[in-house]
Design brief:
The complex is a heterodimer of chains A (340) and B (178). Chain A has 340 residues and is α+β, with helices and mostly antiparallel strands. Among the domains of chain A are: 49 residues, Uridine Diphospho-n-acetylenolpyruvylglucosamine Reductase, domain 2; 105 residues, Enolase-like, domain 1 (2-Layer Sandwich), CATH 3.30.390. The chains are: A alpha+beta (340), B alpha+beta (178). Chain A: InterPro entries: CO_DH_flav_C, CO_DH_flav_C_dom_sf, Diverse_Substr_Oxidored, FAD-bd_PCMH, FAD-bd_PCMH-like_sf, FAD-bd_PCMH_sub1, FAD-bd_PCMH_sub2, Mopterin_DH_FAD-bd.
Chain lengths: 340, 178
């Protein structure tokens, strides 16, 4: 790690001010991704603003009937929170599908959104990477790209966003609350993360110095019919090759409302509202699910070693929607080789 | 707050500055320790290199193996992915604080009884992680214990024994509760 100074903030305004007054500063919450990147020399902050003493760990109802998740509540405390379990079991399942108990005890909700891609070229400073070193090229295009994007990629970058939690947050249409040098604002989850385009170095739409303070979940939690289906190389403690967050609101056999978001396939959590519209008002049948799945992968492009993801994603969507419709609760732990 | 001392690179005529150290107070296994360390010292390195508690192991140093697992306020974490300076007000428990040669922790005894290790390198992390699992109280079945212990890898592949050892202690705690 490169040398840096450290200070610990006790109020949001102090953290923002301290960050702004140090060139090359970064915020540190749980640190599980940032310290890893610093050890690899991918991140080289010269000053760290410690956030762990900020009063942002609570999980509380919002006036609108939803739930506010403090940015510094850990992933574990969030997943096991009684209200989250009862009202947003999709979020509970998605969080528990990610990382390990130790990491979930450290990682914070804000940090989960800001974790960076696990693209091996991004991590390897001996190789080109437009995300790490703008203009240097992309090692993954034409290289080993088994874990890379099939949707929304660009000629500069085919990295994927690694989070599980964020896929559920996308499906639930959460809102991100931020505080920065220019005050507070909210960002709809859809608009928080970015596609790579020509600026893959930017993962999200935070302005310099902005700090995530919380996540608001809307009242609607799809607690009856949901599934988080995660497909990976081993049964636990691995990143998704493809994951699907599916949520349905049913009226008898008819789909009243639907949410569909994918992980492991794009530079951002990939929610597809066109596919959701194909589900709404339709009977909850395999044919309906297949139409929505076909819509999602319609524009998918393989890069060589990840071509398999297109068919995998199509089948995973159908399966997750079926699980959601059936109301089966434990969808997250399945083997990659089990049949859809 | 740790600040770089004013006798920095510029004052030294462009020569690299000595590491800026600061005072960090840690409570480890019930004992207070005052360390002079640089802010980039991980909790793992602080434990091993400065407090000389070498029971906690460095496997990958990247949060991928669990060998460095310790308990912070009763919760298991990877000490390799955390800075010592982030834990000033916390209660840290390492394998040295769980049991001793004369007075083995039930998990230590169970690991011996079930042949739950070969080289032993992952064992302190496994045991601290299992203690975290017990504190959480959410894993009861074999399937649950496997999933909740998935953050700890064992290169020797002693998983079957580890599972049996943890299951035994989980079962005996459940019996005691009922
Ligand atoms: S040494 Fe910390 S997880 Fe491997
Ligand atoms: S006993 Fe050797 S690594 Fe687990």
């Amino acid at each position: 790690m490169n040398p840096f100074t450290y200070s610990s903030a006790t109020a949001v305004e102090d953290a923002v001010r301290d960050n702004a007054s140090h060139e090359g500063a970064a915020y540190i919450g749980g640190g599980t991704n940032l310290l890893d990147l610093m050890k690899e020399n991918v991140a080289r902050p010269t000053h760290l603003v410690g956030l762990n003493k900020l009063p942002l760990t609570s999980i509380e109802p919002t006036p609108e009937g939803g739930l506010r998740l403090g940015a510094l509540a850990t992933n574990a405390d969030t997943a096991w929170n009684e209200e989250v379990k009862r009202r947003y079991p999709l979020l509970n399942q998605a969080i528990l599908a990610g990382a390990s108990p130790q990491l979930r005890n450290m990682a914070t909700n804000g940090g989960n959104l800001l974790q960076r891609t696990r693209c091996y070229y991004f991590y390897d400073t001996a190789t080109p990477c437009n995300k790490r070193e703008p203009g240097s090229g992309c090692g993954a295009i034409g290289g080993f790209n088994r874990i890379h994007a099939i949707l929304g990629a660009s000629e500069q970058c085919i990295a994927t966003h690694p989070s599980d939690m964020c896929i559920a947050l996308a499906a639930l249409a959460a809102t991100v609350r931020v505080s920065g040098p220019r005050g507070e604002r909210t960002i709809p989850f859809e608009d928080f993360h970015r596609l790579p385009g020509t600026t893959p170095e930017r993962d999200n739409n935070l302005e310099p110095g902005e700090l995530i303070t919380g996540l608001d979940l809307p009242a609607k939690g799809f607690e009856k019919n949901f599934s988080y289906l995660k497909l990976r190389d081993r049964n636990s403690y691995a990143f998704a090759l493809v994951s699907v967050a599916a949520a349905l609101e049913l009226d008898g056999d008819t789909i009243k409302d639907a949410r569909l978001a994918l992980g492991g396939v794009a530079h951002k959590p990939w929610r597809d509202q066109e596919a959701e519209n194909l589900l709404k008002g339709q009977p909850a049948t395999p044919e309906t699910f297949a139409r929505a799945a076909a819509k999602v992968v319609e524009s998918a492009v393989g890069q060589g070693s990840n071509n398999f993801k297109i068919e995998l994603a199509r089948r995973a969507i159908v399966r997750a929607l079926k699980q959601a419709a059936e109301g089966s609760q434990h969808a997250s732990d399945v083997f990659l080789n089990s049949n859809p | 707050m740790i600040q770089q001392s004013s006798t920095s690179a510029a004052a030294a005529g462009g020569v690299a500055a000595p590491p800026p150290t600061g005072t960090v107070r840690l409570t480890i296994n019930g004992q207070q320790h005052t360390l002079q360390i640089a802010p980039w010292t991980t909790l793992l390195d602080a434990l091993r290199e400065y407090v000389h508690l070498t029971g906690t192991k460095k496997g990958c140093d990247h949060g991928q193996c669990g060998a460095c697992t310790v308990l912070v306020n009763g919760k298991r974490i990877n000490s390799c992915l955390s800075l010592a300076v982030m834990h000033e007000d916390h209660d840290i428990t390492t394998i040295e604080g769980l049991g001793s040669q004369e007075n083995l922790h039930p998990l230590q005894q169970a690991f011996i009884d079930h042949d739950a290790f070969q080289c032993g390198y992952c064992t302190p992390g496994q045991i601290c992680s299992a203690q975290g699992l017990l504190n959480e109280g959410r894993a009861h079945t074999e399937e649950e214990i496997k999933e909740h212990m998935s953050g700890n890898l064992c290169r020797c592949g002693a998983y079957a024994g580890i599972l049996n050892a943890v299951k035994e202690v989980v079962d005996s705690q459940l019996r005691m509760k009922n």
